[in-house]
């Protein structure tokens, strides 16, 4: 293979790698309680793990329960190299479906948000 063609292929491959990094955003990778799960015991905290580190000042959650009632939460904190947002739940959760609306600002400045639900069994 001619040297020029090799260099073009290497440059194309490198640009794909760097383009993938440029479009990276902090996406929710996992949560405890998990999305669409049913738990027997009401959780005392939410643990949301993201694909990259977060800026705590601009990241958080809003939790609503049965009847769209707001659930009180404590101040969040970052764990696991700033990629897990832990938010204490200060209200006592009763049986029913809960929705978690999250928003995150990754350490590199990209904003993301989403929702998921879990259910506390009777």
From TrEMBL:
Residues 25-120 form the CopC domain. Its main location: periplasm. Gene3D superfamilies: 2.60.40.1220. It is found in: Periplasm. The keyword Oxidoreductase does not apply. It comes from Rhizobium mayense. Keywords: Copper, Metal-binding, Periplasm, Signal. This is Copper homeostasis periplasmic binding protein CopC. Residues 1-24 form the signal peptide. Belongs to the CopC family. It holds the Pfam family CopC. The keyword Ion transport does not apply.
